[in-house]
Amino acid sequence: MFCIADILTPTQLHEVHRLLAEQPYHTGSKTAGWAAALVKNNEQLDPGARHYEKLQQLIVGALAANEVFALAAMPKALRPILFCRYSAGMSYGDHVDNALMGEEPRVRSDLSFTLFLSSPGDYDGGELVIESTQGTHEYKLEAGALVLYPSDTLHRVATVKSGVRQVAVGWVQCLIRDPRQRQILFDLEVLRRQLFQQQGKTPHFDSLAKSCSNLWRLWAEP
User: Fold this and answer.
1) Does 165 count as an annotated binding residue?
2) What is the DSSP track for 68-109?
3) Is the pLDDT confidence value at 216 over 90?
């Protein structure tokens, strides 16, 4: 699980809110699986909304430009972003995201993300709660920040007590399917960059770079 700050700049965040204002929303349960629909109580931006494509492009562009997201997610494909709104009394009960999403070509959900569009002070409650083998984790990040987490985890959105919680959510199919292999490559890439910053392009750097490339050749699913 990664928390990544400043995915959106203040200017981008302002533009997202401007485009979302007065757009048509529909009941969020329409896009949930048959079981998750029973516990999903929120609103989602209508895909036919006038600014939907522009909002998609803005968020996807911000993700592509973020180096930490690229290193952590190793994206091969993204599902279309959902823009969700939770008012007082709304929540999303325990659920696991669908393993396969969309029509052909289908996208396998390896990682999920929640990009917070509202500041924590804008609403009470509404924490993203993720269950893992390490325990229960609650997330309520600053506007413009993102939490990236495995799609196979049980998670929920706590009831919003007051105010409005706005988020953008999405799913990633990774170039490296195995999370252990992604962790190894992430750690090696961080080390490779640190080594270059400290010593420049040395024989040690070249040897490490070769090993990183060869692991990509072994594990990647392009």
Assistant:
1) yes
2) HHHHHH-EEEEPPPEEEEE-TT-EEEEE---SEESSSSPEE-
3) yes
